[in-house]
Amino acid sequence: MAIEVHGLDVDLLRSEIQRTYADVSNQPDQDFMFPTGRAWAQDLDYPAELLARIPEASCESFAGVANPFSLGPLAAGEDVLDIGCGAGMDTLIAAQMVGHDGTVTGIDMTADMAAKARRSVAEMGLDNVTIVDGSAEQLPFADARFDVVISNGVIDLIPDKDAVFAEIVRVLRPGGRIQLADVTIQRPVSEEGKRNIDLWAG
Predict the structure, then answer these.
(1) Digit-coded pLDDT (tens) for 4-24
(2) The whole model's pTM is what?
(3) Among the listed residues 90, 92, 100, 96, the one whose alpha carbon sits nearest the alpha carbon of residue 70
(4) Which residues have C-beta within 8 Å of that of residue 35, sequence separation ≥ 6?
(5) Contact 137/158 with Cβ under 8 angstroms?
(6) Chain segment 145-197, per-residue pLDDT in tens
(7) DSSP letter (8 states) at residue 104
(8) b/e per residue 20-58 (b: at least 16 CB within 10 A)
(9) Residue ranges of domains in the chain, CATH in brackets
(10) What SS3 state is found at 142?
């Protein structure tokens, strides 16, 4: 059952989030309300040797909030899903960790970001990475498809978190794991705040 925030126009929210992150993709030098880029990834202690191999196009549009790999490296041969992959930086880090025997699938609802990720996958010559257009609330994958789900600064943007986590559980294999980096709050958000598109979209 979908969770609804009274008075929140979810379609408008989705279009505003897509607009914001299309700007991050197409105009990465613009000032945003959140940090972006390779220097930000370096500040978050991404593995330097893996980060150095990522094409600048993906790094310049990186808009994550932390480093999901700080929870532990991925193992060779694992099948990984990156929810909200953006321009693909985390996806491409994951691909290097799992190697040729593993796979990484990135999914994003912003077409410009997904296209940028695909270009970087091609530039790196990776045949074990797939980028898919779609939403976290309705993942277009079979049950028990992945060993690991990663995500970075995406789930906080989605009103129906129950749907996202239900989908994550569905696509994970028994014993699979989740490595999330995201924004959390310590106090309840007011009803007015919940309806504020700008607060959701950043």
Answers:
(1) 555 667 788 788 888 888 889
(2) 0.88
(3) 90
(4) 43, 63
(5) yes
(6) 999 999 999 998 888 899 999 999 999 999 999 999 997 766 665 555 544 44
(7) E
(8) bbeebbeebeeeeeeebbbebbeebebeeebbeebbebb
(9) 10-184 (3.40.50.150)
(10) coil
